[in-house]
């Protein structure tokens, strides 16, 4: 419950900001559960980028419960985020920038 409340507060602050860049969106929404290259509460961006397409990443951000069911996950702790299109694109590109070379 605290995680959802914290996410909501952060969402309000970001909505007030304007143009997004991937690092800023990461710092606002993702850093509490994800790290770029190491396991935190959620998987690192390097793992996500090596396994998922841009469309899958965006779907997981906006509908994590639905996508988790599609992927066959037994549970999901990620809350859904309602990002502006430019924020969603920016965070997707940022995540994919951590794709290991050669994958």
Low-confidence stretches: 10-18
Q: Kindly state the percentage of residues in helix.
A: 55-70%
CATH-scheme architecture: Orthogonal Bundle
Decide which structural class fits the backbone: mainly alpha
Tell me the overall shape. Answer: globular
Instruction: Provide the CATH superfamily.
Output: Cytochrome c-like domain
Summed up, the domain count is 1
Query: Strand tally, please?
Result: 0
List the total number of helices.
6
* Percentage beta strand: under 5%
Instruction: Give the helices and strands as they follow along the chain.
Output: HHHHHH
Radius of gyration: 13 Å
State the separation between the terminal residues, measured CA to CA. 37 Å
Task: Write structural notes for this entry.
There is one protein chain. The chain has 103 residues and is an all-alpha fold. It has one domain: Cytochrome Bc1 Complex, Chain D, domain 2. The chain contains 6 helices and no strands. Helix 4 crosses helix 6. The longest helix is centred in the first third of the chain and has 14 residues. The protein starts with a helix and ends in a 7-residue tail after the last helix. 20% of the residues are buried. About 9% of the residues have low confidence.
